[in-house]
Specification:
This protein is of the alpha/beta class. The chain is built from six helices and 22 strands. The chain has two domains: about 200 residues, FAD/NAD(P)-binding domain (3-Layer(bba) Sandwich), CATH 3.50.50.60; about 120 residues, FAD/NAD(P)-binding domain. It binds flavin-adenine dinucleotide. Flavin-adenine dinucleotide binds next to helix 1, strand 2, helix 2, strand 9 and helix 6. InterPro entries: FAD/NAD-bd_sf, FAD/NAD-binding_dom, Fd--NADP_Rdtase_type_2, Ferredoxin-NADP_redctase_2.
């Protein structure tokens, strides 16, 4: 076997499961279709404060994710980011998981922490071919935009969050939205206006303008009922939201209802050696929260440890007893 455990999904639940698998002495890989760890937190609200994670009166999403990555780091998880889990087959003594591109991982057990599914950013048509060359869908490191002219496209919470977060580091931040009304909460729209961020409404990015060296120079914006304009841009944050889809996981022979996988009290699914935890796992009374996912990850991994080695204890002992 390549790994004792392969975790599908590097959201908060999968990251905590990686820590826990290391704590239980299991070798593990963590697969995620996003290029960054953190799941929904990284993709949708990295700058928001979270108030209901045990032990933190308030923690910024980005900091929580970093803390989870740091917590798992001593156990050296293999992160396979930007890779999608596509096919799951049972083989003698374990499972084979095929990733997009055809790589096959052999594992004793698989823990699915796929949340609400694989995220696909809603495309910005004018930005076709510019992803990674000036256009991003989310901002893993604010410092990368220090001193840049940034155009944020979108009218939801994420778009406004990015404006708030980027304003202190960027040379300028301009928001372009195709309507005059925003989906974002009024309070955050007010904060962004008060900062003096320019909001260009009833407007669409029509074209990315290339500099002589091939980098992004500007975007052409068409304004309904107003004058079209060109905005200087070193970076465009296309924050048009994400669609989420369980995709291939739906065909893995699991019990799935309303995009959630049925599990028992050990977090085992209907299929041997396959477990699920976090938002994707369902049982009566389930509450989808980060805190819930942490508990389920611990339950799943401890039960996996016993499934892989029947001599192992279900209760791992207290981490506070480990030197
Ligand atoms: C705006 C917003 C605010 C929120 N605020 C709070 C809050 O204050 N407190 C709180 O407790 N919860 C909050 N939540 C909910 C919380 O974010 C989720 O409960 C949590 O992220 C679930 O974690 P997870 O690891 O189970 O799944 P996710 O975070 O959804 O991560 C799942 C990961 O699996 C990956 N994946 C899926 N399918 C595949 C595949 N086939 N191959 C590879 N990778 C795959 C996805 O790319 C994703 O990264 C909020 C959610 C949103 C959207």
């Amino acid at each position: 076997m390549d790994y004792d455990l392969v975790v599908i999904g590097a959201g908060p639940t999968g990251l905590f499961a990686a820590y826990y698998a290391g704590f239980r002495g299991l070798s593990m890989a963590v697969v995620d279709s996003l290029p960054e760890p953190g799941g929904q937190v990284t993709a949708m609200y990295p700058e928001k404060m979270i108030y209901d994670v045990g032990g933190f009166a308030a923690v910024r999403g980005r900091d929580l994710v970093q803390g989870l990555v740091d917590q798992a780091a001593p156990w050296k998880p293999d992160y396979l980011l930007g890779r999608k889990a596509e096919k799951l087959e049972s083989v003698e003594g374990g499972l084979e998981l095929t990733l997009d591109g055809g790589d096959v991982l052999r594992a004793g057990a698989v823990l699915i922490t796929a949340g609400i599914g694989e995220f696909t950013p809603r495309p910005l048509p004018a930005g076709d071919g510019w992803l990674g060359r000036g256009m991003v869908h989310f901002v893993p490191a604010l410092a990368a935009h220090a001193g840049q002219h940034v155009v944020v496209v979108g009218g939801g919470d994420s778009a406004f969050d990015w404006c708030l977060a980027l304003h202190p580091v960027a040379a300028s931040v301009t928001l372009v939205h195709r309507r005059a009304r925003f989906r974002a909460a009024e309070s955050i729209v007010r904060q962004v206006r008060e900062l003096g961020v320019r909001l260009v409404t009833d407007a669409e990015v029509a074209r990315f303008v290339e500099a002589p060296d091939g980098s992004l120079a500007a975007v052409d914006v068409t304004v309904t009922g107003g004058a079209d304009e060109q905005l200087r841009a070193d970076a465009v944050v296309a924050a048009l939201g994400f669609t989420a889809d369980l995709g291939p996981i739906e065909s893995w022979g699991l019990e799935i209802d309303h995009r959630a996988i049925s599990v028992d009290s050990t977090m085992a699914t209907a299929r041997p050696r396959v477990y699920a935890a976090g938002d994707v796992a369902a049982y009566p009374g389930k509450v989808k929260l980060i805190a819930t996912g942490f508990g389920e990850a611990a339950t799943a991994v401890n039960n996996i440890a016993v499934a892989l080695n029947p001599e192992a204890h279900l209760f791992p002992g207290h981490s506070s007893n480990v030197e």
